[in-house]
Write a structure and sequence with these properties.
five-stranded mixed sheet; Immunoglobulin-like; about 700 residues; mainly beta; 6 domains; 52 strands
């Protein structure tokens, strides 16, 4: 072997053609676009002969098409590589019947970008300054190793396309980096601010040092449409009937509008879903209509409230508040909802009382007992008994169990509710000779409610404060009845810019008074009595939204806002303020001047009523001296209690357990005369727990 320069000359018999010897391949390496490299091909023969060459036109070329070889001498053929493209390039040089493989690589940067760029629909809103549509394009250097791409400032025709970001109507241009390495990517920001509509396109040009494509043109395509703000109308009483609700929604405008999104939330959460429209955004023509279909998910409770929000271009989100319609059987609550009479001695009778509450008016047509004959209805309800909602005195019935043998017995009390089916109450008992009695009680958990009372603080309203004081008493009694975990704040309805509204501290120095606090009613009224006198700018909902933004609605709580004033609502954007209060189950009630029966500052101009309608609140007239009668908080449970009456007389030690845990005798006492276990003040079990009282009973129920 003999080396000439850096090219090896190899004599291979397999490369011989009439004893002609040459290399089998030439490797040119990497050559920049626009440059050339030559390599020699060495040929020799032991006989004189003419050698012909054949090479297709392309990246490789030779000067001579043939050579005359002399015996035992070496001739040189120069082969030139001039790449016309990047990356690997190949060709084949034919020498008679033999071939030489030629390989080289084109070197240099290369700019690439995916195009055209197709934007989603660009929406322009009539009579409003258009907002830019922002997107980006990816530019990449797909050249060979070691070749940096140098971008120059892109060029754009017109003023609607900005390579960069629009600040107002001025394009803040993007500045390219110094270099972009091989395989590096670059996100280039684009903004579109069209002033015309229809099918549109814009072109931007990216100059670079790409030797084969010094600049690349990228087209941006979009459909620009003009819409007006949606004016959505519907007819709805706020009650969801059944498992689905189909609500026709109509655009009451004169041009097309765009509905961009629809969301649904519920309390309890995750039980409400939007079925239709299935695809958004949705274009509505003038007087165009679509069906809004929402449905309850499986397992939804009978008492449920929710809100559906429609987001439309140019409009504030439109809330639609509703409650699931309560049928009679759904409204009814029987306490206890089931009863275990426990172990009862043969021949002894034990009676249990049952109380019936309702959240809506119902009629009970009959009370029937099915099952073991050892149970007996001893105090039934008369046919046609009416159960009024939120009655402080529930209707009741009683059942007695008298075992005639030692066995387990079951039965069911069936309450027939008119037009709504049956409510069933399971009964269980155990007849025994000398039983250990276990009395079980279940106190329902309390519903949680945050009540903020906004009272007119203007000097002109001061004479009405005594009436407000007296009307709050029954309202506070409802909250302290024992069925709600309530907290109440009293705040001035003062809309002056510098009012800084906060709830007024009560006599204990606390801004929010909890219903479990001793002297709950007196503490709330002390905050009312301490209410300062403010300005004549009367505003309820705006300051209330600020108060709740600071205090926050408790987790799982309903929010009830109450505005008491004889003036107009002067909060700016009142409906938007109502939406700021973060509670799905939000109600806003107003006691104000809705009629002309007495002297008032002004009649409602429709704002108070719109807030009531939007949140299914209550309305009272400030001219009615007993306006508190409008309020109820859905109390359908027994009052909180700390006294548990036993079903038989103990003849030995008594054990008390709460949720399975043994309770110390220092927390309760046995009242022998009343035959009850009485918890000491402040030691009563938490609502929602199960209380078990066990003892040996050898006597019949007293």
């Amino acid at each position: 072997m003999r080396c000439i320069g850096w090219v090896a000359v190899v004599s291979l018999c397999a490369a011989c053609d009439g004893r002609v010897v040459h290399q089998p391949s030439l490797l040119f390496g990497s050559v920049a676009i626009g440059e050339s490299r030559e390599l020699p091909l060495f040929l020799s023969s032991d006989t004189a002969q003419n050698v012909a060459f054949e090479l297709s036109p392309g990246d490789f070329s030779i000067v001579e098409n043939s050579l005359t070889l002399r015996p035992n001498e070496t001739a040189t053929l120069l082969v030139r590589f001039t790449p016309t493209a990047l990356h690997t390039r190949t060709a084949t040089l034919k020498i008679g019947a033999k071939k030489v493989s030629l390989t080289g690589s084109g070197a240099g940067p290369e700019i690439t970008a995916e195009h055209p760029v197709v934007l989603p629909r660009v929406a322009l809103l009539t009579e409003q300054i258009p907002m830019p549509t922002i997107t980006s394009i990816t530019v990449r250097n797909t050249g060979t190793r070691g070749s940096d791409l140098v971008l120059r400032a892109p060029r754009v025709a017109g003023t609607e396309l900005c390579v960069g970001t629009f600040i107002g109507s001025v394009c803040e241009r993007w500045v390219p980096p110094a270099t972009l390495g091989v395989d590096d990517r670059l996100e280039v920001p684009l903004s579109i601010l069209p002033v015309e509509f229809g099918a549109r396109s814009w072109v931007m040009v990216f100059p670079s040092n790409d030797p084969l494509q010094p600049e690349i043109a990228v087209e941006v395509i979009a459909l620009v449409e003009v819409f007006e703000a949606c004016n959505l109308g519907y007819s709805f009483d706020g009650v969801m009937k059944g498992e689905e609700l189909v609500l026709p929604i109509t655009h009451l405008g004169t041009r097309r509008c765009l509905v961009e999104g629809i969301t649904a939330t519920s309390a309890p959460v995750n039980f409400l879903q939007v079925i239709e429209p299935a695809s958004l955004p949705l274009t509505l023509d003038a007087e165009g209509t679509f069906d809004l279909k929402i449905a309850l998910r499986p397992g939804a409770p009978s008492m449920l409230s929710g809100v559906v929000r429609i987001d439309a271009l140019g409009s504030d989100p439109r809330p639609i508040f509703f409650q699931r319609e309560l049928k009679g059987a759904d409204c009814l609550t029987v306490t206890p909802s089931e009863s275990n009479f426990g172990a009862v001695s043969q021949g002894c009778g034990r009676t249990r009382d049952f109380y019936v509450y309702s959240a809506c008016p119902v009629v009970i047509d009959s009370v029937q007992l099915a099952g073991s004959a050892e149970f007996e209805l001893v105090q039934a309800l008369a046919p046609g008994t009416v159960v009024s909602p939120n009655s402080g005195t529930p209707v009741s019935f009683s059942v007695t169990y008298t075992p005639d043998d030692v066995s387990a017995d079951v039965a069911t009390v069936k309450l027939e509710v008119r037009d709504a089916g049956f409510v069933n109450v399971p009964l269980m008992a155990q007849g025994q000779a000398a039983p250990i009695q276990v009395d079980r009680y279940r106190d329902d958990p309390l519903s949680v409610v945050d009540v903020l009372v906004m009272v007119d603080a203007s000097p002109s309203f001061v004479p009405r404060r005594s009436v407000v004081h007296e009307n709050l008493r029954p309202l506070l009694w409802l909250l302290n009845y024992g069925c709600t975990d309530a907290r109440v704040g009293i705040a001035p309805a003062d809309g002056a810019p510098d009012a800084g509204v906060q709830p007024v501290p009560n006599d204990a120095g606390v801004r929010w008074t909890a219903s479990e606090t001793p002297d709950f009613e007196g503490l709330v009224l002390s905050a009312l009595d301490a209410l300062p006198v403010g300005s004549e700018v009367e505003a309820c909902v705006g300051p209330a939204a600020d108060v709740m933004a600071d205090a926050g609605v408790r987790a799982g709580s309903r929010f009830s806002g109450i505005c008491i004033t004889d003036a107009l609502e002067q909060s700016p954007n009142p409906l938007a303020s109502l939406q700021r209060i973060q509670s799905v189950n939000t109600s806003w009630s107003v006691v104000s001047s809705f009629g002309a029966a007495c002297s008032a500052e002004s009649l409602d101009d429709g704002v108070h009523q719109s807030l009531i309608d939007a949140s299914h609140g209550l309305r009272g007239d400030i001219c009615d001296p007993t306006w508190s009668g409008i309020f109820s908080f859905g109390t359908t449970c027994n009052p909180r209690r700390g006294v548990y009456y036993l079903t038989s007389r103990p003849t030995g030690p008594v054990e008390v357990r709460v949720d399975g845990g043994l309770i110390s005798g220092s927390d309760w006492a046995l009242d022998v005369a009343a035959n009850s276990v009485d918890f000491l003040p402040g030691r009563a079990p938490t609502p929602g727990t199960t209380i078990e009282i066990s003892y040996v009973s050898l006597s019949c129920q007293p």
